[in-house]
Specification:
single chain; Beta-Lactamase
Length: about 500
């Protein structure tokens, strides 16, 4: 029987704590809104195999993870308002559930360590643990209320708990981020100018959710006296910060984009913003937003958050000497979590069976099968593709992938010739034997691990990498195949 091995994102985390013009106006606004320094992972390596994990503390991962708690707090407040106001409740419930789950897992990881999140060991610093305890204490009632709302059992009281309490949580997450940054920041690995830019880029995600939350409160009659001003400030600050990031603003410590990729990403975000920011105009003029207005704002905030996350990923990769910044947490996630998939008996059996079936295949026959697959892919499917995608093991892989809540974007298994045995989704080709994902795993040995470069995936809209591992027969220890995971790098950063 195919069993289900849940990854950390789907498992329950046990908490160890309680439960206009770019002038003086922009300088002042940016200074007031500035977040603590945002860092990056400390890995500097050409290959995952060469990483000395004993020297890796996960300090920069901790800085970045703690900074992300702000946007998660705003996302929870925004989604809870829409759930309680019955405005796009289904999508809001999904956003609420994932945001609180992310918040919980980050707090747990900051306390106890979580290699999959780039934090290999437990926190030891008493001051940081105290700040984490205070954050957890303030978050606890909001978490409880959010869980009820996400389950469909929430009440107006639960929504009010979040509406009146999220500001205190937000402020505490700022204190926590400052504490973590002060403890782990390493100026030798992260230039101050880079930290400043990342600081403001991360802020954009929180502002995106803040705008939607304000729109929802105005639409549902739950707004405070300050909500209108909050919306105006968020819209203005998002606009000015976006211009500063795109063009550079030395007066605020913001350098121009470091390369064409970052510049293009910011330009794309700017275009999206300019085309759609008009949805806030009526509300800014004092009109009560409609449910459609709130939904449009929610969609825009999600789009902007993803776009800014893409930009942040590019900034991290572009930091001098940090082109392999993603490799340490990706290695940890692959070896500590994804490797659990490799022991599935039916997966092993499927590989062994295909190896036997394909034992006599010639190189020409392999190429012919690959050509057939490519032809079927160009024709929206065919018997070979359908047979593989409908296989029980492929269905199991898809279920496993879905349980990772976005960490794994694709997964496929290869036999001893590099031909696909099972896969969660259709691949562009059937034979991987001429690619590094197979050559540097199956052909190397049982302890091999191959990490690809980061690339933008058009189908998902995220930057991702591939982690590939050999698969061994537990009865003999022999390598019988290989497996490749597509990983959303932004979830690791």
């Amino acid at each position: 029987m195919l069993t289900k091995n849940l990854t950390p994102r789907s498992a329950t985390f046990h908490r160890s704590l309680m439960r206009g013009s770019l002038s003086k106006t922009l300088c002042f606004a940016l200074a007031v809104a500035a977040l603590p320094t945002v860092g990056i992972f400390s890995a500097q390596t050409a290959s995952a195999q060469s990483i000395d994990r004993t020297l890796y503390t996960g300090g920069k991962a901790r800085v970045n993870r703690s900074a992300s708690l702000r946007s998660l707090t705003e996302a929870v407040a925004s989604a809870s308002c829409r759930v309680n106001g019955a405005i796009g409740a289904d999508s809001a419930i999904s956003e609420l559930a994932s945001s609180r789950e992310d918040f919980d897992s980050i707090i747990d990881g900051l306390v106890n360590g979580n290699p999959a999140l780039g934090m290999p060991g437990a926190e030891q610093n008493a001051r940081t643990l105290k700040s984490l305890s205070e954050t957890a204490s303030l978050w606890e009632p909001l978490d409880t209320a959010a869980e009820k709302l996400a389950s469909g059992m929430g009440t107006d009281t639960d929504a009010a708990t979040i509406r009146t309490g999220f500001a205190a949580v937000f402020n505490q997450t700022e204190i926590l981020a400052a504490t973590v940054s002060g403890q782990y920041a390493d100026p030798q690995q992260l230039l101050q100018s880079d930290a400043t830019v990342l600081n403001f880029a991360v802020r954009q995600r929180a502002l995106a959710y803040r705008m939607t939350r304000a729109m929802c409160e105005l639409a549902t009659g739950t707004a405070s006296a300050e909500t209108q001003d909050e919306l105006a400030t968020a819209v203005n600050l998002f606009q000015q910060t976006l211009i500063a990031l795109r063009d550079g603003f030395p007066g605020a410590g913001i350098n121009p984009p470091p390369n064409d990729a970052v510049r293009a990403s910011l330009e794309t975000t700017s275009q999206i913003w300019q085309e759609q920011r008009g949805i806030f105009d009526a509300a800014l003029a004092g009109q009560t937003p409609s449910a459609d207005d709130v939904m449009a704002a929610a969609e825009l905030s999600q789009t902007l958050s993803v776009a800014m996350n893409n930009t942040i990923t590019l900034y991290l990769i572009a930091t001098p000497g940090q082109d392999g910044v993603y490799r340490v947490p990706l290695e940890a996630y692959a070896k500590d979590e994804l490797s659990n998939w490799l022991a599935e008996p039916d997966l092993i059996a499927a590989i062994i069976a295909q190896n036997a079936d394909h034992a006599s295949l010639t190189e020409d026959a392999v190429i012919a099968l690959d050509q057939q697959w490519r032809a079927e892919a160009g024709n929206n499917g065919g018997p070979l593709i359908s047979k593989l995608l409908s296989a029980p093991v492929s269905n199991w892989l898809l279920a496993q992938q879905e349980a990772t809540a976005g960490f794994v974007t694709e997964v496929f298994v290869m036999d001893n010739k590099g031909l696909n045995v099972a896969q969660s989704a259709q691949t562009s080709d059937y034979w991987q034997g001429d690619e590094a994902k197979w050559q540097e795993t199956y052909s190397v040995g049982p302890d091999a691990l191959h990490i690809s470069e980061v690339e933008f995936d058009d189908s998902t809209g995220f930057y991702q990498s591939q982690a590939s591992l050999p698969i061994t027969d537990p009865s003999t220890g022999d390598v019988i195949g290989a497996i490749t995971f597509g990983i959303n790098v932004q979830n690791l950063m």
